[in-house]
Amino acid sequence: MICPKCRKEFPKNSLFCNKCGTEILVEKIKKVNSNTAIINQQTHDVMTNENPNNKNSLNNTIGNIVIFISWIILICIIIGNVITWQKTNNLRYIISGALAVLGGLFNIYLLSKVKN
Questions:
Q1: Residues 17-53, buried b or exposed e (16+ Cβ, 10 A)?
Q2: H or E element: which one contains 52?
Q3: How far apart are CA 14 and CA 26, in angstroms?
Q4: What stretch of H or E contains 107?
Q5: pLDDT band at 92 (very low <50, low <70, confident <90, very high)
Q6: pLDDT at 48
Q7: How far from chain centre, in Å, is Cα 28?
Q8: How confident is the model at residue 25, as a pLDDT?
Q9: Which of 10, 14, 66, 84 has a 20 to 30 Å separation from 98 between CA atoms?
Q10: Residue 4 has what pLDDT?
Q11: At what angle do helices 52-87 and 91-115 cross, to 10 degrees?
Q12: pLDDT tens, position by position, 65-77
């Protein structure tokens, strides 16, 4: 190893420099503490999900699930409207079904824009 003060070489397991007497143990502790701080920060990021990449992937997954469920609901509304239209000739049911479909399409559009 090399002494940080006088730049002379000394034995690897020595606690003091043989030339100038600098304590080497203090430098080793500083190095270990800095490595520990980095590991602690990485552990904190993982445990609290503060990593931006984790948040983005979780948000994308949730957004995709919500959009998928919205499509399923929209398809069910369309099927229900077709069945209602065949069974009755009431214009009120047909218009309300069409408005529900348009509202669902608009909501899916907005969800996809927010997700991106």
A1: beeeebebeeeeeeeeeeeeeeeeeeeeeeeeeeeee
A2: helix 52-87
A3: 12
A4: helix 91-115
A5: confident
A6: 61
A7: 36
A8: 65
A9: 66
A10: 73
A11: 170
A12: 888 888 888 888 8
Contact 24, 6 (CB under 8 A): no
Which residues are within 8 A (CB) of 74 and not within 5 positions of it... i.e. 6 or more apart? 101, 104, 105, 108
pLDDT at position 98: 84
Q: How far apart are CA 46 and CA 58, in angstroms?
A: 14
By the 8 A CB rule, do 73 and 104 touch?
yes
Percent of the chain having pLDDT more than 70?
Answer: 69
Q: Which one-letter DSSP state was computed for residue 55?
A: H
DSSP string computed for 63-97 = HHHHHHHHHHHHHHHHHHHHHHHHH---HHHHHHH
Three-state secondary-structure class, residue 9: strand
Q: How many CB atoms lie within 10 A of CB 60?
A: 12
Tokens coding 51: 């990593």
